[in-house]
Specification:
single chain; alpha/beta; seven-stranded parallel sheet; three-stranded parallel sheet; about 15% strand
């Protein structure tokens, strides 16, 4: 049904197909009685970007193996829309799961009820705190700034602090499943990412942090022994970050950084860091990670030469690390 053009919703009678195993759809509105499809194994809805909410009843689909996307809360009647705890008994979910509307989760208690840590077959988890985020779209820096503005908190300082703390408690209580190989966190409004469960992600190979504009520090990367790919995009609130921080991840092969002013300092401090050593010991211990870091530094140096961004550094509150740390 995903290719039926012009159809925006399906009749409720569809929900009488009790033995239906697979439903592939891309519609603006789903039937309210989907909870009747108790034998459903695969609900493929990753093309439903126009979806404003999901109806209650998903929690009854306990044999579900595939759920491409879950929309939490939304524009529907609160008594009729799906909340995060609908995942509680869906322990057979596997593959990839995108959760949008994480900003609507009430508190850590609701997040904990989702029982994500028991979803041992999930390998790819993507948490979006907004609805209109789309990682498949390439955006310019100007568009990125506009996107981030939509994520800014408009309330007073007390309300902003409350939202930050709520997001932190929600993600901490969520406790991602330990077998994850990929994790995406986008639009998160907390200040810290020091989640206790991060240390249990021993199989994680790819981590994307995007538009987490209030976050001041990166998560403890040294607890991710198999991490190969790290993307840090639109994290304008990051404080001091040095290349040395990434040497904790000796398996790192690719480091992608965009729209993060703090990293513009790297080009200036490149020749004042011990990691630039070409010694055999350094290469042997940090080979992969060092190559990934140097690729980013080379790109940053090129930005200096081509774009002349010295003025930008001053505007962003540039710190002269050569004075703070001295040369090595």
């Amino acid at each position: 049904m995903s290719e039926l053009k012009g159809i925006k919703e399906l009749p409720e009678s569809l929900c009488e197909l009790y033995n239906l195993r697979t439903l592939n759809l891309s519609l603006k509105k789903r039937p309210q009685g989907m909870g009747k499809l108790i034998n459903l194994r695969h609900l493929i809805n990753d093309g439903t970007d126009a979806f404003s909410y999901m109806p209650k009843g998903i929690e009854r689909l306990v044999f579900l193996r595939t759920l491409s996307k879950l929309v939490v809360g939304g524009d529907g009647d609160n008594s009729q829309v799906c909340s995060l705890d609908c995942l509680k008994k869906l322990d057979f979910l596997r593959g990839s799961l995108v959760i949008k509307g994480m900003g609507n989760v009430i508190d850590g208690a609701e997040a904990k009820k989702a029982n994500l840590m028991n979803k041992k077959y999930l390998l790819d988890l993507q948490l979006y705190f907004s609805y209109d985020d789309d990682d498949d779209n390439d955006i310019s820096e100007g568009e990125a700034s506009s996107s981030q503005c939509r994520l800014q908190i408009d309330e007073d300082e007390a309300s902003a602090t409350e939202v930050c703390r709520k997001d932190e408690s929600v993600v901490e209580a969520l406790h991602a499943p330990p077998n994850l190989e990929k994790l995406v966190l986008r639009g998160y409004r907390g200040i810290t990412m020091s989640f206790e469960w991060m240390g249990s992600l021993t199989q994680l190979r790819e981590l994307t942090l995007r538009d987490c504009i209030n976050c001041e520090h990166l998560p403890p990367l040294g607890k991710l022994p198999l991490l190969e790919r790290l993307q840090i995009i639109g994290m304008r609130g990051l404080k001091r970050v040095l290349p040395n921080h990434f040497l904790q991840v000796t398996s790192l092969e690719r480091l992608n950084i965009d729209y993060c002013p703090v990293f513009k300092q790297w080009a200036k401090i490149y020749h004042h860091l011990p990691i630039t050593s070409d010694s055999e010991t350094t290469r042997r211990n940090f080979g992969k990670a060092l190559e990934a870091i140097e690729n980013v530094i080379d790109e940053t140096r090129a930005q200096f030469a081509v774009r002349g961004i010295y003025e930008d550094l001053m505007a962003y509150g540039y710190i002269d690390f050569t004075k703070e740390y001295g040369s090595h």
